[in-house]
Each structure stands twice: as C-alpha cells, then as structure tokens.
Prior knowledge:
Layout: H1 4-14, H2 18-37, H3 43-56, H4 58-75
Helix pairs in contact: 2-3
Amino acid sequence: xxxxxxxxxxxxxxxxxxxxxxxLLEDLACRLRTRLAGTAHxxxxxxxxxxxxxxxxxxxxxxxxxxxxxxxxxxSDGLTRD
Length: 82
C-alpha cells in the first residue's frame, strides 16, 4: 500500500498538465538513473543529464524557437540550413 506522501504526490501530479507530467517523469527518471549509476558516473553521463534538463526548460525552448525564427528569415534570403 502506498504511503500517504506518495498518495498526496499522485493527487498533486494528476492536477498538472500532460506536458508538466511528462517533464516531471523525465526528470525523475534522469535522477533515478544517476542514483543507480552511483556517484562514480562519468562526466559524459552528467553532461547528457544536464542537456536533457536544459532541453525541457521552457526558457531555453523559447530561446531556441526565437533562433529558429531568425534562421527561417535567412532562408528567404537564399541561405539554407543543412
């Protein structure tokens, strides 16, 4: 039987948007993988985890969208992304 804390967390999670629920799930999975790998995980794994967190960050997503819009404007000038 789940503890009271887990039940309360489940209720609060249910009120989140699907996008926020997914972000939370991905963050928890990332943290669990790090814990299971122990404190001796490689710098590469740590960097990958940091990138995953950054990729879900709304402010970074907003900035990337702005950059993408800037590049779309250059495509009309004959420049292309390859």
